[in-house]
């Protein structure tokens, strides 16, 4: 019976139930509307007088005070980005009787271009009518003088002082610090209108862009009383803006200067990193440009000149330029061989001048006719023996090779605090499958990957980061340009933490010692011989040369003319010093150059400049026998490991 | 031929008079409201005829839809309901997927026009709840309530995620009202409300920062006079300075001097209050009460459970618009993007509201026979 009653609907009962509910609902609604009416009664009757006063006193208007942008210093407090006073033309829309006529007439007094007018119109739409909108920035003295005479013709338009950005070092830091630009129509879409009220510039590139949030600050406001015509009568209250934080870069202007000058205008890039913490000590991309041109709107002619220049000065080669790394990958590959147990340091290979894929006629050659003879790992790094690394790459296999190399951030982002770094290409099956018409991977491609050719492409930043990671006994740090922030010039800078991005990549300290020995041998007697003579610390390095054009024959090129070679090659040099306890690691690339003798001097000049900035006297003589235990090794790493197997199998 | 046409016309006219499909009191109420809306818009929009013309065109389009929908019998609507609900929820998912990575995505671009799928839910949500409860024993059991809860939560969650809190509130309310009207016992309602109250701290955690700011600013608007506080302060100044009789049509200084933000859309009620005073406000609230009351009357006269619940829920959710919008401009509720129905400028809301009233007209046309 009970089941039956549940299954049959009681139409009449439901109808009645609904009727009660609808009435109850209506009662609740009337109650709600009455509450609303009560609130209106409270506002419109009980507090009427107060609000009438406030409505009349709405002549009191808030006016935004933009914050001063944070300054940018180098690691020693040398100013890299400054705020300097300038004048601009501002318009208060509600005071302009006829906007179109004003814009048409004012052009005759103060020259305006279309960009000025477009940005102005866009900003006009987003502002309240009583808020002033900038029309033209950085007025010249002539502009100000001409406007002063004609001011009576333009109610609502006025010359207003403001702070503009200046980069005292010009081109030297353009690719690091970047520049600010005038806020345009697109920026207005994405910027928080409250935070940017009254602000005319925003970071466009480099540190100025990636640290925009920190540099910008928080606007303040003042309450001003205006008369019926909207003219300011007096300031009632001021709430000061909070200026943006100052930034201290880890770059040293002296090292940066030496690095830039070392290129002598030849296109290329260099990055120097402190392996102990990832701090970038220098970062240059040659050629560069004057960032000051962009701050208040670059002229059309200047911009065209920059964009059409053959050597692309706007292009940040250090961050975005990708080049085949060539032989600079060899120390990393050798370390991988040790890590995976594919090679022992004393294992030798016979280099005859040519290496053929077993069972095929696919052959690749050594650089030296006739080969280097029997070489072990140290000697293979020293002489850059291709055959050794062809074989090693083949024994590792492409999967282990690319897995190992990816740990050094090849083929990925280094995580530097700049926007827009390129990832380059790390050869792998997955990369080829996604990027090539030919899906299958061939052993021949593994071989050439072993000497940094083929699909390989790395940025100078990636190679510097990898070198620093190697130099730091395998402990990876994301590269950092900003060392600390500061709330005001008088307060103490607060360091930004940069913990290692992972555990050390090297499990056995003796593995590291072998690679270190090989790279020192490069400088002492190998491809970098003679480049670091007289430098007080031991230097470990590796050269690299990558072909700019694919080779058409496998024949030896006998042309030794250096300008001919330079036109065909890109030269790399990576190095770190002191070899015992590295404090600086550098990667430098010259877009036109061959072997270490072109790129190594750049590294040398960076090291010299860096040395000059270091406190304490350097050791008098190169300590080749026993390394002096000067600097403490990175935590958890033992550094003074006796090098084993170095002599084994040496000819 | 001509005779036949004449005969048809005659029959049509007779039917319209003796048994009109349109409920004349409701239609009259809506017409007066639309006129008030256009007049207020004319004043708030700085006498822009383009603005008023555009809104009038949308009213015409909405009216056409109203008439079309009113021809669809509720039984047909009921059979379509699950598909309509599933379709509109699916569109929400599409918007959520397409909108990934961007700030707030509510629109679907159809090439010809853009529309917000969340608007559809305002109608399909109460339809679905009514459809589900229609064949079931009422008052509903805990299990049925739970099912309805899920039906409401999925689309409401998707809309809140967009984020569009205002529409999420309206959609939830529409579904909840259908449940309320189905006769859920009062003690259960009390229990549910207590549970919702207990959830508030949890919900706070899920709100976006700007939404939290809006709530916090409500408590102390003067703390942020340039940003969030600006809306609340200026809106209250507009309302309060209106007084008992108002400053008169087209004399809203708050709006004219652009102190009042969004004065043609979400904050148009403040302009109305400033110009017509407490008298105008009470008259407008009475008009809304009349429309809602008439909706509930139509619901009581309806033929079956589905029609009853649907008509009642549509009517009652109309109240939520008025209450949330009015509460916002009077500084009682946080700033949420809910328009004042048929007064605020804005296309989709007007069109979807009028379509909802089309459903009511259809239910009215198919009401119970008393004689």
Task: Please explain how this structure is put together.
The complex is a heterodimer of chains A (651) and B (371). Chain A has 22 helices and 23 strands. Chain A has 651 residues and is an alpha+beta fold. Chain A folds into three domains: 2-46; 61-249, Penicillin-binding protein 2a (Domain 2); 253-613, DD-peptidase/beta-lactamase superfamily (Beta-lactamase, 3-Layer(aba) Sandwich). In chain A, helix 10 packs antiparallel against helix 22 (595-613) and helix 16 crosses helix 18 (443-449). With 371 residues, chain B is mainly alpha-helical. Helix content of chain B is 72%, strand content 1%. Chain B is built from 14 helices and two strands. In chain B, strands 1-2 form a two-stranded antiparallel sheet. In chain B, a hairpin with a 4-residue loop joins strand 1 and strand 2. The model of chain B has no long low-confidence stretch (mean pLDDT 85). At the A-B interface, helix 2 and helix 3 of A face helix 7, helix 10, helix 12 and helix 13 of B.
Put simply, the count of helices of chain A is 22
- Span from first to last CA of chain B? 35 Å
- Radius of gyration of chain B, in angstroms, nearest whole number: 21 Å
**Pattern of helices and strands of chain B:** HHHHEEHHHHHHHHHH
Q: Would you tell me the overall average pLDDT of chain B?
A: 85
Indicate the percent of residues in helices of chain B. over 70%
What are the salient characteristics of this protein?
heterodimer; A: 651 residues; alpha+beta; Penicillin-binding protein 2a (Domain 2); Beta-lactamase; 3 domains; seven-stranded mixed β-sheet; five-stranded antiparallel β-sheet; 22 helices; 23 strands; B: 371 residues; mainly alpha; two-stranded antiparallel ribbon; 72% helix
């Amino acid at each position: 019976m009970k089941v039956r009653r549940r299954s049959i609907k009681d139409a009449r009962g439901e109808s009645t139930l609904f009727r009660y509910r609808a009435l109850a609902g209506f009662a609740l609604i009337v109650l709600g509307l009455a509450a609303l009416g009560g609130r209106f009664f409270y506002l419109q009757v009980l507090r009427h007088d107060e609000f009438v006063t406030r409505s009349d006193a709405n002549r009191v208007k808030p006016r935004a005070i933009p914050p001063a942008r944070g300054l940018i210093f180098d690691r020693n407090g040398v100013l890299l980005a400054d705020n300097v006073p300038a004048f601009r033309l501002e318009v208060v829309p509600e005071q302009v009787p006829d906007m179109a006529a004003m814009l048409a007439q004012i052009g005759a007094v103060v020259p305006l271009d279309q960009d000025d007018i477009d940005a102005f119109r866009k900003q006009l739409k987003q502002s309240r009518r009583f808020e002033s909108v900038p029309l033209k920035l950085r007025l010249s003295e002539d502009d100000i003088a001409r406007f002063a005479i004609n001011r009576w013709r333009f109610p609502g338009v006025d010359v207003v002082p403001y702070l503009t950005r200046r980069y005292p070092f010009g081109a030297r830091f353009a690719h690091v610090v970047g520049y600010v630009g005038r806020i345009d129509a697109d920026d207005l879409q994405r910027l928080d209108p409250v935070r940017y009220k009254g602000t005319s510039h925003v970071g466009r590139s480099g540190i100025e862009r990636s640290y925009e949030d920190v540099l910008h600050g928080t606007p303040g406001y003042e309450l001003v009383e205006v008369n019926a015509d909207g003219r300011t009568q007096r300031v009632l209250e001021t709430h000061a803006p909070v200026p943006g934080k100052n930034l201290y870069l880890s770059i040293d202007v002296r090292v940066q200067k030496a690095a830039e000058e070392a290129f002598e205008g030849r296109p290329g890039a260099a990055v120097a990193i402190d392996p102990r913490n990832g701090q970038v000590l220098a970062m240059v991309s040659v050629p560069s440009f004057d960032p000051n041109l962009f701050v208040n709107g670059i002229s059309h002619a200047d911009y065209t000149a920059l964009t059409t220049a053959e050597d692309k000065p706007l292009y940040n080669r250090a961050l975005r330029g990708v080049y085949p790394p060539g032989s600079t990958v060899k120390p990393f590959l050798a370390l991988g061989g040790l890590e995976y147990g594919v090679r022992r340091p004393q294992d030798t290979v016979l280099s005859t001048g040519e290496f053929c894929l077993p069972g095929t006629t696919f052959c690749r050659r050594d650089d030296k006719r006739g080969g280097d003879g029997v070489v072990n790992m140290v000697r293979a790094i020293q002489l850059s023996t291709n055959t050794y690394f062809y074989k090693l790459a083949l024994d590792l296999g492409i999967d282990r090779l690319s897995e190992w190399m990816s740990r050094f951030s090849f083929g990925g982002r280094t995580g530097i605090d700049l926007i827009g770094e390129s990832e380059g290409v790390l050869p792998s099956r997955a990369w080829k499958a996604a990027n090539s018409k030919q899906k299958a991977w061939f052993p021949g491609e593994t071989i050439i990957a072993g000497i940094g050719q083929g699909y390989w492409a790395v940025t100078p930043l990636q190679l510097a980061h990898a070198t620093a990671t190697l130099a730091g006994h395998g402990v990876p740090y994301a590269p950092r340009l900003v060392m600390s922030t500061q709330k005001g010039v008088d307060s103490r800078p607060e360091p930004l933490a940069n913990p290692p991005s992972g555990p050390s990549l090297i499990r056995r300290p003796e593995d590291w010692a072998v690679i270190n020995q090989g790279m020192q041998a490069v400088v002492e007697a190998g491809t970098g011989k003679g480049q670091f003579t007289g430098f007080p610390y031991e230097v470990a390095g590796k050269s690299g040369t990558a072909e700019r054009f694919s080779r058409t024959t496998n024949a030896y090129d006998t042309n030794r003319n250096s300008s001919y070679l330079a036109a065909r090659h890109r030269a790399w040099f990576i190095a770190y010093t002191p070899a015992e306890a590295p404090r600086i690691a550098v990667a430098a690339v010259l877009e036109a150059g061959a072997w270490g003798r072109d790129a190594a001097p750049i590294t040398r000049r960076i090291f010299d400049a860096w040395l000059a900035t270091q406190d304490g006297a350097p050791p008098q003589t190169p300590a080749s026998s026993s390394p002096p235990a000067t600097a403490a090794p990175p935590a958890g790493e033992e550094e003074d490991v006796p090098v084993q197997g170095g002599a084994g199998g040496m000819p | 031929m001509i005779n036949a046409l004449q005969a048809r016309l005659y029959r049509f006219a007779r039917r319209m008079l003796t048994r009109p499909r349109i409920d004349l009191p409701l239609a009259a109420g809506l017409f007066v409201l639309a006129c008030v809306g256009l007049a207020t818009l004319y004043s708030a929009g700085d006498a822009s005829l383009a603005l008023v013309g555009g809104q009038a065109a949308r009213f015409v389009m909405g009216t056409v839809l109203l008439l079309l929908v009113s021809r669809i019998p509720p039984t047909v609507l009921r059979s379509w309901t699950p598909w309509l609900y599933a379709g509109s929820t699916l569109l929400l998912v599409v918007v959520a997927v397409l909108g990934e990575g961007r700030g707030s995505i509510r629109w679907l671009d159809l090439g010809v026009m853009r529309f917000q799928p969340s608007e559809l839910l305002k109608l399909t949500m109460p339809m679905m709840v009514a459809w589900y409860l229609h064949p079931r024993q009422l008052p509903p059991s805990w299990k049925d309530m739970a099912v309805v809860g899920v039906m409401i939560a999925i689309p409401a969650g998707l809309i809140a995620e967009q984020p569009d809190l205002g529409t999420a509130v309206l959609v939830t309310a529409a579904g909840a009202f259908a449940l309320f009207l189905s006769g859920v016992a009062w003690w259960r309602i009390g229990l549910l409300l207590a549970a919702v109250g207990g959830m508030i701290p949890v919900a706070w955690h899920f709100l976006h920062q700007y939404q939290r700011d809006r709530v916090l600013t409500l408590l102390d608007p003067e703390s942020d006079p340039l940003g969030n506080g600006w809306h609340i302060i200026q809106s209250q100044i507009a309302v309060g300075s209106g007084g008992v009789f108002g400053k008169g049509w087209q004399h809203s200084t708050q709006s004219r001097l652009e102190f009042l933000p969004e004065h043609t859309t979400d904050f148009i009620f403040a302009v109305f209050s400033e110009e017509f005073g407490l008298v105008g406000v009470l008259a407008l609230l009475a008009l809304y009460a009349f429309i809602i009351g008439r909706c509930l009357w139509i619901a009581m006269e309806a033929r079956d459970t589905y029609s009853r619940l649907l008509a009642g829920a549509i009517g009652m959710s109309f109240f939520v618009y008025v209450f949330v919008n009015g509460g916002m401009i009077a500084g009682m509720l946080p700033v949420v993007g809910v328009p004042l129905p048929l007064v605020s400028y804005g296309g989709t809301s007007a069109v979807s509201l009028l379509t909802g009233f089309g459903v009511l007209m259809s239910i009215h046309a198919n009401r119970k026979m008393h004689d």
